[in-house]
Automatic annotation (TrEMBL):
<keyword id="KW-0846">Cobalamin</keyword>
<dbReference type="InterPro" id="IPR013678">
    <property type="entry name" value="RNR_2_N"/>
</dbReference>
<keyword id="KW-0237">DNA synthesis</keyword>
<comment type="function">
    <text>Catalyzes the reduction of ribonucleotides to deoxyribonucleotides. May function to provide a pool of deoxyribonucleotide precursors for DNA repair during oxygen limitation and/or for immediate growth after restoration of oxygen.</text>
</comment>
<dbReference type="InterPro" id="IPR024434">
    <property type="entry name" value="TSCPD_dom"/>
</dbReference>
<protein>
    <recommendedName>
        <fullName>Vitamin B12-dependent ribonucleotide reductase</fullName>
        <ecNumber>1.17.4.1</ecNumber>
    </recommendedName>
</protein>
<dbReference type="InterPro" id="IPR013344">
    <property type="entry name" value="RNR_NrdJ/NrdZ"/>
</dbReference>
<feature type="domain" description="Ribonucleotide reductase class II vitamin B12-dependent N-terminal">
    <location>
        <begin position="56"/>
        <end position="146"/>
    </location>
</feature>
<feature type="compositionally biased region" description="Low complexity">
    <location>
        <begin position="15"/>
        <end position="27"/>
    </location>
</feature>
<feature type="domain" description="TSCPD">
    <location>
        <begin position="755"/>
        <end position="855"/>
    </location>
</feature>
<dbReference type="InterPro" id="IPR050862">
    <property type="entry name" value="RdRp_reductase_class-2"/>
</dbReference>
<comment type="similarity">
    <text>Belongs to the ribonucleoside diphosphate reductase class-2 family.</text>
</comment>
<keyword id="KW-0547">Nucleotide-binding</keyword>
<feature type="domain" description="Ribonucleotide reductase large subunit C-terminal">
    <location>
        <begin position="167"/>
        <end position="706"/>
    </location>
</feature>
<dbReference type="Pfam" id="PF02867">
    <property type="entry name" value="Ribonuc_red_lgC"/>
</dbReference>
<keyword id="KW-1015">Disulfide bond</keyword>
<dbReference type="Pfam" id="PF12637">
    <property type="entry name" value="TSCPD"/>
</dbReference>
Amino acid sequence: MTETTSGPARGSRSKSGNGAKTAKAAGAGKGLRMERIHTTPGIHPYDEVAWERRDVVMTNWRDGSINFEQRGVEFPDFWSVNAVNIVTSKYFRGAVGSPQRENSLKQLIDRVVRTYRKAGEENGYFASPADAEIFEHELAYALLHQIFSFNSPVWFNVGTAQPQQVSACFILSVDDSMESILDWYKEEGMIFKGGSGAGLNLSRIRSSKELLSSGGNASGPVSFMRGADASAGTIKSGGATRRAAKMVVLDVDHPDVEAFIETKVKEEEKIRALRDAGFDMDLGGEDITSVQYQNANNSVRVNDEFMRAVEKGEKFGLRARLTGEVIEEVEAKELFRKMAEAAWACADPGIQYDDTINHWHTSPESGRITASNPCSEYMHLDNSSCNLASLNLMKFLRDDDQGNQSFDAERFAKVVELVITAMDISICFADFPTQKIGDTTRAFRQLGIGYANLGALLMATGHAYDSDGGRALAGAITSLMTGTSYKRSAELAAVVGPYDGYARNATAHKRVMKQHADANAAAKRMDDLDTPVWAAATEAWQDVIRLGEKNGFRNAQASVLAPTGTIGLMMDCDTTGIEPDLALVKFKKLVGGGSMQIVNNTVPKALKRLGYQPEQVEAIVAHIADHGNVINAPGLKPEHYEVFDCAMGERAISAMGHVRMMAATQPFLSGAISKTCNVPESATVEEIEEIYFQGWKLGLKALAIYRDNCKVGQPLSAKKKEEKAAEEAAPATTAAPAEKIVEYRPVRRRLPKGRPGITTSFTVGGAEGYMTANSYPDDGLGEVFLKMSKQGSTLAGMMDAFSIAVSVGMQYGVPLETYVSKFTNMRFEPAGLTDDPDVRMAQSIVDYIFRRLALDFLPFETRSALGIHSAEERQRHLDTGSYEPSVDDVEVDVEGLAQSAPRHIEPPKQAPAAKPEVVAAVPAPKEAHTSTELAEIQLGMSADAPLCFSCGTKMRRAGSCYVCEGCGSTSGCS
């Protein structure tokens, strides 16, 4: 186990107004007294868990090539395969294959946690070495047990020799000068190179309707967006093959706002024209780079004056950038309509509500909030950054002995205090991409604590995502999180001093704290789950007001709700950020390779909370496994359907359901929420207008819309592929008669009514079963029946379905050896000893079944090549060194060879020339590689998610970004 800690303060750090000397002087020997939450004195958290070694081999499903391989990595036994794969491939430092490469989660956590402890001790955060040790152990425990995670830059950089950048979110600024614009290009490029994203507001740049000092017309911000877009498309984020993440904002009163709104609409029309002309315009296609403005999210910053003009049907003035005078008046409703039409057509622009954002601004005397990061959750001063961390809410759900549930508000608050302390310490040693960003961040110390797994928590507690009870619980948790964060910030201010900008902004900061407290007091309490959390939040806000008045605050900002893409997978979360569940059926990766389809673990918990008995739960879960939804599930009351509504499917949550959830949590956040509201393809422009309008009425800070299939630059759905194939197959009416096309397809050969068969009883790891294998009278194996467990159980149903699928495949000509090569060595429980002398050990029931079938029906040469031998053959190998029998032992059985030979199906004969016909090709069976693809197959729909540039699997939405469940790559904030 290696220990790497940060060295002496580097260049830009020494300029900190809250550096080591200042902090120690302010602390005057005080320091925090740390409290144990999970750990035991004298016992290290690592010693309380069971560790195991695993092999991580990640492949590209498209061509089978290996993307990443590291064997023998060490993780706790309760970590999932997916979490192990992502942490090993993304976060372990050192060249793969070298002795310097990290190979244990202990090394990774120690590298980060010991760096934090060392910086905390150097800067006077702890009252004693014992408190520093408690901090280290508690932080290690929380990370080890997936209770929370820092954002990805911390795992990438902290404790290494490279610059220790801890922030994922940046806001830049640009002024109305060529020098500033060129600086913008450079600064943005450096941030992209480091693997992060940035946002900025272009509204200071003069419009194309204004004059330059030389007398000519200005270019306008839209023209300069082209250069920045080209730069972002060229500089791959973090040296990887994914797009850079950026946000471009323009104020609604800018004279070029209409051109800004239409930029992506026009480009989308260009994409469609080029696609129809035969160019490759899919996301990642070689021709998509010829289209502009595709590397940024665009948002219009609207103010209350404009929204009131929309509401009343009045005119609205567009203002010159230098003088502020109105140079043009437009109909506010028409401009608002154009925004909605553009969002309907291509998902851009989003909307940001300027007056609401600045109403909650803690530091207005130092400048307005004009922009956000690419995912819209971080909003603060220009040239600033925010480091993020997110808590796994499911770790705080308790079940008592009577089966009652509660949210552990007390432990949650203690973990929030621990995490906020660590996040603030990180600013003491962090490096930043530019001097301006470093200066602003150290002066205001913006933090972004948040959470993941809200959707899973609500479902597990029997709350519909779109319900008053669900919103009350979400609001209470968010209020407690932010209130506790500011309470700890005030306590830190007493120890190491308030942030540098606090004195100038004290009145405004305390006003915003009062606004949060008032919103907490006014919130509606609903049931036994949220009421205690509200009570804890109320107490926390009272402490915030009291301690803030006395000490001030260490941090200008405390909380946001980020996408939690990669780190959500690291924590084994079912849902990301504030999002609901994607679907009720998901993939689970298995140790040793392969994956299996499972019903979400939260579904049984929800059914138990709703009062269903174990037998009913089993039947409902079996129905969900078969159908992918709860509609008509046996015994499930229709009034409980809404608890299981998801982001996709027949009972998808409405767009306003998402908006109302955002509104329930927004008053309790320092920043905003990364979230996109998906609407169906049938949604109208009027519906999008209403969503944007209600977002303003409900007090949101930002909002984005995505209409299904509105963009061309995305993977073609199955429906589109079929339509395209039909178009290509159809003969043109004006062309000469097309040559006859015959496409061969397999023909199913059914077994006769009477067929020979073998029935085998077996036991695998204590699980008993029966297998019946029936053959064609003259042509090998044709069907398999499997009987496991009691009739009606999930296992019995799955084995029935599996045997039918295998049987149909063999009747269409799939050779038995293909199944044997695919299913042997698949590992899952039950596994272990069998009662078959030829197969003494099996890694799973499926492994045993196909080994037995190979022994019974495959010729020796075929199964020997697959490493499958009988007990007699293995004994012969021990005695003679060869598995094959000697010539004297062989008796030629012609009929037996015919039985075991692989079956070949002749293609159908060509139709007579006088009767030309086109035989439609049977589409290849779909194969799912992620939960998104599985949901599409289950629900018969297509999600507009891009393919992962790293491993090729379809990504799923996480906030305003996308995350790959296969390798953890994200399209934005990590």
